[in-house]
Records
---
Amino acid sequence: MNNERSSTAVTRMQALSKVAIALSETLSLDQLLYKAVAHCIEILNFDAAVVYFLDTEGQQFVASHFHGIDHASIAQLQTLPTDCIGGIVIKNGKTVITENLAPYHQQRPQVEGFASLLSVPIKARKQTIGVLDVFSKAYRDFSPEDITLVESIGMQIGVASENAKLFESIASVTGKLRELVQLNQRLASCLHLDSLIPLLTSELASVFKANVSFLHKVGEQAVLIHSSVADSDISAPYEKQVNTLLHAEPDLIHVYHENENDSLFPFFVQFNMKQAVYVPFVYGDNLHCLLIGKSSDEPWSATEREVMEGITKTISLALTNCYLFQEVEKGREQNSNLRALQISAQEKERQRIAQEIHDSINQSLSGIYFHLQYCRDEIEDSPQRVKGILDKLLLITKENINELRHVIHDLHPLAIQKFGFVGAVDELVKTFSLQEIIQIHLSVSGQPVRFKPEVEIHLYRVIQECVNNIIKHAGAGEAFIRMTFDDVKLSIVVEDHGCGFEPQKLKGSHAYGIMGMETRVRDIGGEMVLTSKPGHGTKIEISLQIDLRGGGVDHE
Ligand SMILES: Nc1ncnc2c1ncn2[C@@H]1O[C@H](COP(=O)(O)OP(=O)(O)OP(=O)(O)O)[C@@H](O)[C@H]1O
Ligand SMILES: [Mg+2]
């Protein structure tokens, strides 16, 4: 007798370890319930089993697995109230044995045909989270070993289902992270605002099941940058309230639910939203906010909110990329305009020089040629007369040489090569003063250094344009040029006390003279600041680092 009992115990121990092994083989809740219940029925010769878990609110049991129950009954047993037998199991955390189910058949006609029921608790972390019901068609009294075995299986289901849930949540987090990484990549490679915003809207909808999204600039007046809702008219009080809230706690992500603050957020009603998340982020100097709203009740998990926070960082990066790209494009356009202008200016200059050579030197050379022909023919007959003509020709040739010098100077001021740009500027100043066009006061302090030829020609042209502008526009009788050389830097100030102007009005206009100056200064690695105000004259400050390792001083 004893032998028989101990061999049954061994068989059951083996059966139990079989169940344990089977449960450890999978992390899918469906599969592990199937295996646990199948083994349980097989070992103890039961006819049916149902596994129930309590729903999140603890209001009812929801069936997770059926075994041996007919199809018609399954639908009716899907959910059960907590006041049935399982309810007692949950409440007390203890097994309930119902050896005779007959009195309950009226209450639960679906289990008609079953005579006995054993309900054991499914526990996880000391909490009863569900019930394992096993049925037999024949009346039977359950031995203590039967009960212990089913209870052990119930315990194992509890632990395994916790593991499976953990695994499911890890899998969902991993999935979300993967989506986020992909979204990050897509957003980061988007360089046009026009395509970034729609992309953002569709991605937010798919990642967060959101129906509404707004991108806001938060300030005195919230500016709506984008809305996923066409023609959205967001009332002022909402914007004001949101502004106040976000300014008060700009680091937090704010979550709101329907009815929480109806009067505060009328747009919940307006857009049929049940919940919304405000994710503030700083872009440039401004506080921005991404609002993600959805019309379903299903709450966002803590992980989803973390991901939302992460996304705003990508958005601010993507926005920065877009704006920078726009600026680069604008700069490129301006550069190509400037280049076109330079080319046309060069062309005009060539025409002017050609005209000048034609009108002056060419004319005189032709004159000289004819006079020389005359002298050759007449030299023997009237040498005195020829001498007079030759004297005149010498004078004309000298004038032509001078004229040619002017043309050459215009093309490339020779003075720069000889005396450096400081000397060339001095020449320029003297020419204007001599011609009584304008009185220019030039002062040079410190020890002048020589720059590379291309740097010197740029500096000379910039000062030349400053002086031309003063003559053309300032209406001033005098101008001031101050150059200061110190150990590391050259500073140039060109100033007049003339009519002045509003520099911001030049933006987008065709101020190519000033634009050209800026380009030249930038090209040689310097900085230029223009200050002007109507009635207060104009000041242009240029500074240029002197590279003592060679860039600033070497000059052939
Ligand atoms: N010293 C100055 N005093 C008053 N107004 C000035 C002065 N310098 C520039 N401006 C104003 O700025 C405008 C732009 O100057 P900018 O040199 O770019 O063009 P411009 O002199 O009109 O033409 P360009 O130089 O191409 O022949 C001028 O038209 C003038 O209105
Ligand atoms: Mg000009």
---
Amino acid sequence: MLPPLFNPEYVLALTDVTKLSVKNFDRLLTPDEVTYIYRQCGAFWEYDGNPDTPHVESLSGLHLDWFVNSHYVLSHTNLCQLFAQQAIRAMRQYDGSIAWALGSSTAASDFSKDVANALEARHDVFGVGADNAQIWKGPLIGRHEVICQFEELMTRATATNAVRAGLRAAHPYELTFAPFVFTIIHRSEIEEIEGSKVLSLVHYPSRCWKPEDCPPCKQGSKAILAKGANWQRLKKGYIGEPCKECGQFTVVRCGAAVKCLSCGATSGCS
Ligand SMILES: [Zn+2]
Ligand SMILES: [Zn+2]
């Protein structure tokens, strides 16, 4: 058992955070610790103010100057289980039963599965339709079976609401939702969704902009979705132009010149 951690910069740094598991913590992680784990896993990105580098467009269409990609944390199955256990700690005041633990596809699918395992609740996954619609293909959920949602990130509650819409589209009667929803990282000022209180481990209400009001856009930075190869581009500062030598989109600014991280070619003054 690790001792209580008061300063993650010094204490968590002594261990490989990707090896942490449920047995290391018998308490809630602090927001600093959660943030530290995300950073160490390469899941945290911040805009550095350089307009040659891109910034993030969220699923809701708003532009952001920081973002987390939970896949880089939750793909470590031990960390996924750790955060599932943390979710259960965070909801401890709630003493009702939960029949279903569900999360949006795909980022929260495995996370909510781990919560379901720990709660001995039922679980199934959503398909993803046009405009990121969440499509329920699981069995019919009883009218009085309590459904609780477990997400990894909430920006505008787009995914959380899409899950509810998907469930409703698949059921001819009203469904019962728990009095809370959980998200590991909560970056909006939304306090509740249809009467369900938002619980989180980290709550940083933070800036997001409509495209027309976005300062990074005004500086000339390009907005991109934080998905797939785009995440590498965000993390490494790729400028989004192909290398003139090898054609890879792995060109970074390097002083007054640009350099390709794939083949090493440089251009501009050097
Ligand atoms: Zn923007
Ligand atoms: Zn190259």
